[in-house]
Design goal:
9 helices, alpha/beta, Beta-carbonic Anhydrase, Chain A, globular, binds zinc ion
Length: 252
């Protein structure tokens, strides 16, 4: 019954939207904020229909198998919430392949943080329950959270975000120690984005159960860096203390 009501209200909204769109076409007046939101929301249903028609059909057998047998992903991907960093697209994976945690700045709170922590709980589930053997922390270029570390943010408006950015503070300090005063901002940000990946790996190692599994060779940690403009993935080489391309490409 609830589904029917939802469908009915969606259809009413859809019809209303068509009428409104036609009226808008003829009047050429800018859309109201409310109408704009409604149009965007209706697009969600259209996009979902496209998923049902295209991708679900393609993966249907896999979804059914994953429900029957459960998931057993091999990678826990900890990435930024940035809409331009799409783990499944970057790694060309199928449903069931990746277990994903996305946070602002791909920050991981260290074990010393007290109180309930959704990120730590999700990581523990991935490692201790699903036995995922690879943990990737993936930073990226043009990261808003990293840039936020270097900007004066309004505590009245962004108090929660400012608190969260504490997990990038050590990376910021190290970046400022490493960079020259003449280093351009873009280079400074890129450096901080990469240094932060290493700090987030350190935060992961502050959890005794993760350290134990890493030390015994049961799980591996990886530090990656995604360049949005070129679509390239780089990985941190701990012996060389630098990031190298994951694959050789003509553009690098
Ligand atoms: Zn980011």
């Amino acid at each position: 019954m609830a589904r029917l009501l939802l469908f009915f209200s969606l259809m009413v909204c859809f019809s209303f939207s068509l009428v409104a769109e036609e009226a808008h076409e003829s009047s050429k007046e800018p859309l109201s904020a409310e109408q704009g939101l409604l149009n965007e929301a209706l697009n969600f249903a259209k996009q979902h229909q496209e998923f049902r028609d295209l991708h679900y059909q393609e993966h249907e057998a896999r979804f059914v198998k994953l429900v029957k047998e459960g998931q057993s992903p091999k990678i826990l991907f900890i990435g930024c919430s940035d809409s331009r960093v799409v783990p499944e697209l970057i790694l060309n994976t199928r449903p069931g392949d990746l277990f994903v945690v996305r946070t602002a700045g791909n920050f991981v709170p260290p074990a010393s943080v007290q109180g309930p922590d959704g990120v730590a709980a999700t990581i523990q589930y991935a490692v201790e329950v699903l036995n995922i053997p690879h943990i990737v922390v993936c930073g990226h270029s043009h990261c808003g959270a990293i840039q936020g570390l270097f900007q004066k943010l309004d505590p009245e408006k962004l108090g929660i975000l400012i608190k969260w950015l504490q997990f990038g503070e050590a990376a910021k300090k190290m970046t400022l120690m490493t960079a020259k005063p003449s280093t351009p901002k873009e280079e400074l940000y890129a450096l901080a984005e990469k240094i932060s990946v290493i700090y987030q790996l350190e935060h992961l190692m502050s959890y005794p159960y993760i350290k134990k599994l890493v030390d015994s060779g049961k799980i591996e940690l990886h530090g990656w860096y995604f360049k949005i403009k070129t679509g390239e993935l780089w990985y941190y080489h701990p012996e060389e203390y630098r990031f190298l391309p994951l694959i050789h490409s003509s553009s690098s």
